[in-house]
Prior knowledge:
By secondary structure, this protein is of the alpha+beta class. It has three domains: about 20-35 and about 40-120 and about 175-255, Aldehyde Oxidoreductase, domain 4 (2-Layer Sandwich); about 130-170 and about 265-430 and about 540-670, Aldehyde oxidase/xanthine dehydrogenase, molybdopterin binding domain (Aldehyde Oxidoreductase, domain 4), CATH 3.30.365.10; about 430-530, Aldehyde Oxidoreductase, domain 4 (2-Layer Sandwich). About 25% of the residues lie in helices and about 25% in strands. The protein has helices at about 10-15, 50-55, 100-110, 150-155, 200-210, 235-245, 310-315, 340-360, 365-370, 385-400, 460-470, 495-515, 575-595, 655-670, and strands at about 30-35, 40-50, 60, 85, 90-100, 110-115, 130-135, 160-165, 180-185, 190-195, 215-220, 250-255, 270-280, 285-295, 320-330, 410, 415-425, 435-440, 445-450, 475-480, 525-530, 540-555, 560-570, 625-630. The strands form five sheets. Strands 3-5-1-12-9-10-11 form a seven-stranded mixed beta sheet, with helices on both faces. The radius of gyration is 26 Å and the shape is globular. The relative contact order is 0.14.
Amino acid sequence: MGTSVRRVEGPDKVTGTARYAADQPVDAPLHLHPVQATVARGRITGLDTGAARAVPGVVGILTPDDAPRLADLGDPELRVLQHHEIHHRGQYVAAVLAETPEVAREAAGLVVVTVAEEPQVTAFDEHSPARHPAATLANYAPPTSGIVDPDAALDAAAVTVRATYTTPVQHHSPMEPHATVAAWDGDHVVLYESSQGVAGARDTVAALFGLGEDDVEVASPHVGGGFGAKGSLHAGTVLTVLAARTVPGRAVKRALSRREMFETVGHRPATVQHLALGATADGRLEAITHDVVASTARIEEFGEPTATGTRAMYAAPHRRTSHDLVPLDVDPPTYMRAPGEAPGSFGLECAMDELAVALGLDPIELRVRNEPEVHPESGVPFSTRNLVACLRRGAERFGWSARPPQPRASLVDGWWHGTGVAAATFPAIRFPGSTAVIRFRHGRYEVEIGATDIGQGARTVLTQIAADALGVPTDRIEVAIGDTALPRGTVAGGSSGTASWGSTISEAADRFRDKWGDDPEEGAEADAATPDNPWAGELSMAAYGAQFAEVAVHADTGEIRVPRLLGVYAAGRILNPTLARSQFLGGMVWGLSMALHERSVVDPRFGHVVNHDLAGYHIAAHADVREMTAEWIDEDDPYVNPMGSKGIGEIGIVGTAAAIANAAYHATGVRRRELPLM
């Protein structure tokens, strides 16, 4: 561990031999094309499939009247073709099976759907009468302590900043869209699925179709990005498996169109964030409030944990975070890279910049003065917390000392230049529930665990962990992942994969060596489940970082460019520097994209995303990504897991948009409190 081992699957990917879900070879597959709702709310009153059935090559058409029945799991999104109600634009209302994808598409366009429309609400309004407190927050509990009349403390503070920040709906845009190949043999079904967790996919399909666990096989050998949307099953997968049920002996193949990716697999909800910071004259925070209103779906509540990062960042005796939701007639939101921390850091870190301006303090010094000794909310000690070291290292590397103290001070060739900073954090998570098996065969160690590589390099880093734990070179390790035929693995989400699967493999390796020593016999084997962390609950465990940005704003046109980004991180032991740098930079690019481009525009009349393709939904391109640097602090944290590592897949995005927004203010003297900035 700690060396830049080349990606195990690298040659397969660059030569095009790595097979993704829709690439899997199956004999004479049928192709599915859906019929989707064109209204946001209503009830189907008629379905005319006559013209569609007459198209040569059409094998079958599924409608709510004849589709196989599914178990009700309490998740409305998964009740595909089980009723006539329409809950959002793009909902699947029928599906065509045909010999070719072209025929399926043509026939789907001939299905006539009659709908009785009902009043719908798809425009997000924080003042909606339907607004209510979030029942739950994704992956987070309600605040536990530290709420001591923050409003009175704000009123009494020497300096107070109150501001509102907004972030828009954003959509996942992985290179590989969601895709499924499904084939039934009696009551046994095999799926090739673009998934972040094969075990969870198997469990959901088994429950929906009333099958035993052994009757469902799911394989995800390679996944072309997920970012949270592939962490659980969505309607498209269910529709494909449902359709395949009606054609025993034939596989059914379906890859979502880019447009469907904006309609049926979730999104990051919009937020309105009301921030208030109260401080003493020398910049000591007395109170923090972060009150959030976010969008959700009427049919299924998802609470974006926007303000939860604020609970951990800065010391203040009086504090409050709250989350309200406004239900809309849209497809349900879901996890998206750094859910909560990404949008929430924009509000908090911009507010901290505004407070620094109000105090006449350097933004880095303000953050250092409010560095907590223990977790600000729970009072639990930190396992390690090197945020100040990240800020200091970043300031030195970025040339922060040369920064003009006042905004709008540097005009170069018609461009106003400025710099900004923001802090970042993301929890160090280890999920229980994985099992690893190690076998010795033909002089090599076979490691099996149902983990998933969504592009982060799981195969490679797990090979390194196993090699270190077994005391052998990496070329004697063969790691098998991405299949329910293997021992169960947890989902690739929450930046938890390396910690969860690596801890499990390390435990199995310890048992293997205890049982067989360093010279095992042929067929030697040992297994282990994810070990408990004895420090869980005793210590607060998280990664931290500091984001620095230089921004140039054209004096005449307002065009924004970002010539430089620097991220400095404290994320435990870095197991593979090359892979880690890629993850950090990938997150920073997404933060840049979030700051400058990404916004899904919903037409409130019809409930659809207007810019529902990559021509209209802009993401960062090569011209946007200029000088970017990611570094890290060497950190020894023996409490998080046996490797001493922390998750790095998401922290790169946290704070990046805020650093860019703060730099834009420093460049122009104009404060923008909404994303995107352009």
